[in-house]
Design goal:
The complex is a heterodimer of chains A (about 100) and B (about 160). Chain A has no helices and seven strands. Chain A is mostly beta strands. Chain B folds into two domains: about 1-35, no CATH class; about 40-150, Immunoglobulin-like, CATH 2.60.40. Chain B has five helices and nine strands, in the order αααααβββββββββ. In chain B, α1 packs across α2. Chain B is globular, with a radius of gyration of 18 Å. The chains are: A mainly beta (about 100), B alpha+beta (about 160). At the A-B interface, β3, β4, β5 and β6 of A face α1, α2, α3, β4 and β6 of B.
Chain lengths: ~100, ~160
């Protein structure tokens, strides 16, 4: 699906992850303008970032994260050339993941 | 030998993402594997309910070591950039709350041991509200808030 765009840059031992995920993030409160029916909720519930088998960050999200979510965070203990992986799963069980090399 | 296999299984599941493996084996439905995702917290209608469902207590102290970077006025409530920085030692979890949203809890970020007290994302806000950051460090909760004026709400059609 390639829904994730991610960058991992290291400076002074601190790795900064910046990620963009394409996802509608429907709240379940919005009506379809044509049919007048509620659009069912469809949102990412969990995002996990791992580095060498360690979970660096777990994000639990509700419906109030914006459409096409942006996420950034920082961690120490990695080196340039290491692989970090980011994965997400939504309330319908859809999921995706991406590996990126830190540079 | 059994433990060796288990080790390999665990490694494999970590590589593909723990959730991916659990779902892939068909043992767990996606909803069950999301054990960490607290429905009670995300469905709560007030801050106290959300915080106690998430952390088990609603006792928190205001802290000036938490910095919330968000616009004073957000023209579009559907996309409000929020960055939270905590300089409290041992920050293990950061939650973002928009106190006037129908369900105030926006997100919880659980940080690993080497992860800094910093998260940045974009949130939806129904109307002018306080963005509240809750930080867990050790066994204690700390909070800080910042008002964001919203001119067009981001939760309705």
């Amino acid at each position: 699906m390639a829904s994730i765009k991610m960058r991992a840059n290291i400076a002074d031992g601190v790795t900064t992850i910046k990620a963009l995920i394409s996802h509608p993030m429907e709240t379940g409160l919005v009506k379809d303008k044509k049919t007048g029916e509620l659009i069912p909720a469809h949102f990412i519930q969990e995002v996990v970032c791992q580095h060498k088998g360690t979970t660096v960050m777990t994000a639990n999200w509700g419906v109030a994260i914006s459409k096409n979510p942006y996420l950034s965070f920082k961690f120490t203990g990695a080196a340039a050339g290491d692989t970090v992986s980011l994965s997400w799963v939504d309330n319908k069980g859809e999921k995706d993941s991406l590996d990126t090399t830190i540079n | 030998m059994t433990s060796m296999k288990r080790r390999i299984f665990l490694k494999g599941s970590l590589a593909t993402g723990a959730l991916g493996m659990a779902v892939g084996t068909g043992l767990l439905t996606p909803r069950v594997s999301l054990a960490a995702w607290s429905k009670a917290a995300f469905d709560a209608k007030d801050i106290g309910g959300a915080v106690s469902a998430l952390y088990g207590t609603a006792d928190m102290a205001n802290s000036d070591k938490i910095n919330i970077k968000a616009p004073d006025i957000a023209e579009n409530g559907a996309v409000v950039p929020v960055t939270i920085t905590s300089s409290i030692d041992g920050t293990s979890s950061i939650s973002i709350i928009a106190d006037q949203n129908a369900t105030p809890l926006v997100a919880e970020f659980i940080l690993g041991p080497g992860t800094e007290g910093y998260v940045s994302t974009r949130i939806k806000m129904g109307k002018t509200a306080n963005v509240v950051a809750i930080v867990k460090a050790g066994d204690k909760l700390y909070s800080a808030k910042k008002e964001v004026k919203v001119t067009i709400g981001g939760c309705g059609g």
